[in-house]
Specification:
Layout (H helix, E strand, L loop, with lengths): L2 H8 L10 H10 L9 H30 L7 E4 L6 H9 L9 H5 L4 H15 L19 H7 L15 H5 L9 H22 L4 E3 L7 H7 L4 E4 L4 H19 L9 H7 L1
Helix pairs in contact: 11-12
Length: about 270
């Protein structure tokens, strides 16, 4: 492991570096402030970043809010497929077509503020980012196409990805795969935030979007209601390989995101159920 991997594992805020203070406190209350001792530094770093994210979000809304709100989002292309089926590679291939745009790693981690902060902060974040992904050795940069689902972690919080941070409530967060057992208010909040994020990206690039998140595979009807005319491309892979690769992904992903003891969830059973 490089020093960057050690930094990400032990000191970085994981998926929640771009969260605002209000949303962060809501998440902690929702999980009864149950943060494991081994994750205390990660929780502290998130807490230290959250107030500045709140202020910068307000400033960005004042500067760009009305313009973003007036943007019309062209029907996106959604890349679908189970984790570890090749969705990242397919998104990167499609995004090489300059007629389209995809959210970058920086933009999904800082969805509230990227219009104002990306130019200034992206190079600094790149310095701390490991050169390759720890679970598959794929090269990664701050400008590589990335999953819009991570942005939802910082926005509505209606995402199964929060199970990686709070494994004691896996069943609660996994409701947001299909939203069939979610409340109407939760479904509306998720839809509003995804549309807002798409508007910000469209405002930034002025191009149709290519969006990729494996959970979208469970939401096609919802996405068509939100984005009439949207198109979908699905990639699949041998399920035995997918299972093994997903377990490796969780082994690495849980190290950089967990805020509770990972043994509070049977990850093998969860993977098979998904």
């Amino acid at each position: 492991m490089t020093w960057r991997d050690v930094f990400i594992d032990h000191f970085a805020p994981g998926y929640l570096g771009g969260i605002t203070l209000g949303k962060w406190l809501h998440l902690l209350r929702e999980n009864r402030f149950q943060v494991g001792p081994s994750s205390a530094v990660r929780a502290l770093s998130t807490t230290m970043l959250a107030p500045s994210n709140s202020v910068l979000r307000l400033l960005e809304a004042l500067r760009h809010g009305s313009a973003v709100n007036s943007v019309a989002v062209a029907p996106p292309l959604f890349v679908l497929g189970h984790w570890r089926s090749g969705t990242t590679h397919l998104q990167q291939l499609l995004a090489s077509d300059q007629r389209f745009a995809s959210p970058t790693l920086y933009q999904v981690f800082f969805p509230h503020t990227f219009l104002s902060t990306e130019r200034l902060n992206a190079s600094g974040m790149q310095f701390f980012l490991p050169r390759t992904r720890g679970f598959d050795n794929v090269r990664q940069t701050i400008q590589m196409p990335h999953e819009d689902e991570i942005a939802i972690c910082m926005m509505s919080g209606c995402t199964p990805y929060l199970s990686l941070a709070f494994p004691r409530r896996t069943e609660f967060y996994d409701r947001f795969l299909t939203f069939r057992r979610a409340d109407d208010s939760e479904r509306e909040r998720w839809a509003d935030d995804l549309i807002w994020f798409a508007k910000k990206l469209t405002y930034r690039y002025r191009k149709p979007l290519i969006l990729k998140s494996p959970p979208h595979t469970c939401r096609i009807s919802l996405l068509l209601d939100m984005f009439p005319g949207a198109k979908f491309v699905h990639i699949h892979r041998d399920p035995f390989d997918v299972y093994q690769s997903t377990m490796r992904l969780l082994g690495r992903g849980l190290r950089i995101t967990r805020l509770q003891r990972v043994g509070d969830c049977d990850w093998s059973a969860r993977t098979l159920r998904l």
